[in-house]
Amino acid sequence: MSSDSVATDRRQRLEPAELRRQVERLGPWFHNLNLRGVETAPDHPLGNFLEQMWWHVQQYLPEDMTGMRALDIGCNAGFYSQQLRRRGAKVLGVDHDEHYLTQARFAAAVEGLDIEFRRMDVYELDQLPTAFDYVLFMGVFYHLRHPLLGLDKVARLVRKRLIFQSMIRGGPERAAVPVDAPITERAMFEAPGFPCMYFIENRYAGDPTNWWVPNEAGMEAMLRSAGMRLLAHPFTEMWICEPAGAPA
Question: What value, to the nearest 5°, has the Cα angle with vertex 88 and ends 118 and 223?
Fold first, then answer.
């Protein structure tokens, strides 16, 4: 038995009081996970947002993902990685923050789930040797200083579907944008629904990593520009996509 297997087996047998101590030791948690009855962030200011988000996501995934590869970008403590693994997928969760990855490895071990977690930046994803059937790219885009570069790298890894979510601001309108326009054209840039992103120089919601926040039209334009075909738009912040080269 490998050392990882031994660690997993030992953690599965943790008494509730010891499990609670370990959870507190690894805090603070952004993901509220229920680890055998112990919640990691029971007083989360966003409430039960993970379950609410998963309700939308799971409708666009096969119930049985056995033999499929899934990538969870910005996995944090691994809530979505765990859900994907429970459906049978071989899962890689990546994050740039080692604190979150330590939480994710611990939580997966407690649940007895075989998931690979790796420290990676979005801009390093093109170093991965293979593509993935399903890619989750949620809650990351607006934290990128170079968002379109990151999106291009992510899009190249998608075989079947990309589950994408970003903070969105501005109205829901979509302006009719010409394929080309003369340099003298100015009015279209002022039209409601023209594709755009808002740049945050300092902080938004107290977070200095909130860099770019698109409107809906801008986000859809960038997804198409990265080679994605838009299949569904479950709510304001989420899109379900597939490679544009795939059969419609």
Answer: 60
Q: Which residue has the tokens 């977690």?
A: 117
Radius of gyration of the chain from Cα atoms? Answer: 20
Homologous superfamily (CATH) for 48-243: Vaccinia Virus protein VP39 (3.40.50.150)
With both helix axes pointing from N to C terminus, report the angle between 98-111 and 3-12 in degrees, rounded to the nearest 10. 70
Which tens digits make up the pLDDT trace of 132-183? Answer: 999 999 999 999 999 999 999 999 999 999 999 999 999 999 999 999 999 9
Instruction: Work out the end-to-end distance of the chain between its first and last CA atoms, rounded to an integer number of angstroms.
Output: 46
Burial 80-104 (b: 16+ CB within 10 A, else e): bbbbbbebebbbbbbbeeeebbebb
In angstroms, rounded to a whole number, what is the distance separating the alpha carbons of residues 191 and 168?
Answer: 18
What predicted TM-score, i.e. pTM, was given to this entire model? 0.93
